[in-house]
Design goal:
236 residues, alpha/beta, TIM Barrel, 8 helices, globular
Length: 236
């Protein structure tokens, strides 16, 4: 399998399931058609794991993503090697120099960079940030809150307005409290903008407890996503 980021297909949303801690959830996500599986390396998270867990998983056709918050570039590289990870998700507000250093070692095509539209004071500020980081990543991700993750809610307020108006220079994933009940509504706000997300990052909205994915919720979420894909395909 190529170590590069999953390439979005026309009319089909990429799906990343994050916060994986159990092998049974890996098998279910692969069965349902997930493109990316996220493994969190942050001791402060209830979904924290060790490199040994993803290293032993066989996920043909599904790429493994390591989520990094406070590691320096060399620590992130070490975890990626030990965990046999395909991609690095930079979820700690890493600087341009950090991203450039990591990209010089593994290639920008293996980096997902996270952004928080609710944190931005204006659309212009958010757009400038997106444009600055574009050379150092293949995928971007928009999350709720002003930093970190696991907020368990959707992007709202002025953040949602900024997100709807922004022009992402890379394909991007929508995150933030996505669940079967709100995925369609979150996607609908971009339906006529021409710059909607290339995919979705789901986590707490499909869990029975932190790190434990709920089979019913996962199946419901994928059913909603598959319906959206079918709708997009019909339009194309």
């Amino acid at each position: 399998m190529s170590a590069s980021a999953a390439v979005p297909q026309a009319g089909k949303l990429l799906v990343k399931v994050c916060g994986i801690t159990r092998e049974a959830d890996v098998r279910l996500c692969a069965e349902l058609g997930a493109d990316l599986l996220g493994f969190i390396f942050h001791p402060g998270s209830p979904r924290n794991t060790t490199p040994e867990f993803p290293a032993r998983l066989k996920t043909p056709g599904v790429r493994k993503v390591g989520l990094f918050v406070r590691q320096n570039p060399m620590e992130a590289l070490s975890i990626m090697a030990a965990g046999r990870l395909d991609l690095a998700q930079l979820h700690g507000g890493q600087t341009e120099s950090y991203c450039a250093a990591l990209a010089s070692r593994i290639g920008a095509e293996r980096i997902i960079k996270v952004f928080w539209p609710e944190k931005a004071a204006s659309l212009e500020e958010f757009q400038a940030e997106l444009d600055r980081y574009a050379p150092y990543c293949a995928l971007m991700l928009a999350d709720a809150g002003a930093g970190g993750g696991g907020h368990g809610r959707a992007i709202d307020g002025h953040g949602a307005e900024i997100l709807a108006a922004a022009r992402f220079p890379r394909p991007w994933l929508l995150a933030g409290g996505l669940a079967p009940a709100n995925i369609e509504a979150m996607l609908s706000q971009f339906r006529h903008s021409g710059c909607g997300p290339a995919g979705l990052d789901i986590n707490s909205g499909v869990e029975s407890a932190p790190g434990a994915k709920d089979e019913t919720l996962l199946r419901q979420a994928f059913a909603v996503i598959n319906a959206a894909n079918a709708q997009n395909a019909a339009k194309n």
